[in-house]
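We read letters as residues; the fold follows as C-alpha cells. A sample entry reads:
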Amino acid sequence: MGLPTGVPCEEVMDSIADGVFTVDLEWNVTFFNRAAENITGIPRAEAVGRKCWEVFHSSLCDGSCALEQCMDEDVRLSGKSIFIIRPDGEKTPISISAAPLRNADGALVGGVETFRDLTEIVRLRRELADRYVFEDIVGKSSALTRLFDIMPQIAASNATVLITGESGTGKELFARALHSLSERASGPFVAVNCGALPETLLESELFGYKAGAFTDAKKDKPGRFRQASGGTIFLDEIAELAPSLQVKLLRVLQEKQYEPLGAVQPEEADVRVLAATNRDLDALVAAEEFRQDLFYRLNVVRLSIPPLRERAEDIPLLAQHIVEKLNRRQGAAVEGLSENALTLLMRHSFPGNVRELENVLEYAFILCKEGFIEAEHLPEYLRREHAQGPNTAAAAGAQPPLPAADDVDALMHLGPRTMDQVKRLAARAAVRRNDGKRMAASRELGVTKDTLRKLLQNDTGE
C-alpha cells in the first residue's frame, strides 16, 4: 500500500514518534525528522549538512558506529541501546536501528538510522527494580511473591526452617532475610558450609573446644553455635553432614544444648537454626543416608526456592539489580542491558540459576564500563546458544554438557567465579578471539599489555 496521494514523504516521516535521520557517504546528515529534533534538542536546520558525530555525540561515535557497520557490511542492525549527549549536556538513552541506504539502481548512497527515546523506559525499570526488592531478594513472579507473603510470619516464629532449592538459587539470601525480619535481627548471623570441611574439623568448627582437648588446643576456642548466640546460625549443605554430627545436631535441636570438644558440662544453645540443601532430603531419608528424626526436626517449616528457569519474568529485574550492585562495587557507570542482550538472557535456561546470571554480568562488566551491555559483551556460549536455536534439553531444564577445557567463555557458567578468575578467563578469551595477538586483545579489554601479560601468567590455563 503506497502513500496517500499528495502527501509528501517528509510530512509522513515527521508524523512518526521515532527519530529518523540519513547520511550520505561522507557522513553528512541529509535528513532529520521532527522527532529527531525533539529527542536530540537540535533543530533540523542545524543538523542537516553537519557530520553525524557533531550532531549526536553518542557513545558509539568513538569507532563503533552502527551506521558504518551497516554500510561496510551491507547489514541491518536493530535494538542497540546507546547514549547521545544533548546540547544542554544531558545524557539521553536511546535504542537505535540502522540500515544501508540505496538509490533506485541499488547503488549505496548512504545510511538511515531510526532511534527511540528510552528515558522513560529506563526510569520505569529502575522504579520496578526498587518496588520488587524484598530484603535484597529481587523478583515479581508469583512463585516468589507467595514466599514474600509468608516470610514475615515465618521469621516471627523461632521455628527451625529448611530451605531447599537448586544450587545458585540464593538460599542464603532467604536465610538472611528471615534473620533480619526476626526478633533476633540485632544478634549475629553465622553461616556454616557443612560440605566444606571434613568431619573432625567441622565438629570443632560448630561446637568449639576446650583447652587440652587435643595436642594443639592451647586455649578454649568458641564454636559457631557460641558465636551465633542470641542470633541465627545457617547450616548450608546440611545433607553433607556426617552421621556422627547428625546425632549431635539432633541433640542441639531437641535439648537446646551442645558440648564443645573436651568439655565436661554442656552449654546452652540460644540460637535459631536455619538449614539449606540442594539435595532431595526426603529421598536421602528413604535411602537411610540421612537420619529421619533429624529430618523431622529440621523440616518444621520448609521454604522451596524455585529455579530461575521457572521465573523468567524475574530476569530483567534481577539483571538490573545486579548491574547496580556491580556499579557500586567497581565504580562503573553501566545503565543496564540493551534489548538484544536482554533477549539472549531471557532465552537462556540458566542451569546455574541466579549465581550464573551474576557471573555472566560480571563478565560483561569487564568489556563494558558504561552505557548499555550489548549482546557482544556477554559470554560466547550465550550467543552461540542463540545462533543454534533453542536447545531441547536446556529448555527442559537439563544440565548442558561440559564444554571443552579451552572454551573459556563457556566455562563462565560452570559454578561461582571470583573476580580474579573472571578477569583471567576474559583475558584468555580476548587473546583467542584476536588470533593470539596480545596487543589487539589489550585494546579490546582496555588494559595495558603488561596487565594482560600478568593476567595470563597467573592463569593456570596458559
Notes: The radius of gyration is 28 Å. Residues 1-8, 390-417 have pLDDT under 50 and may be disordered. The chain is about 40% helix and 20% strand.
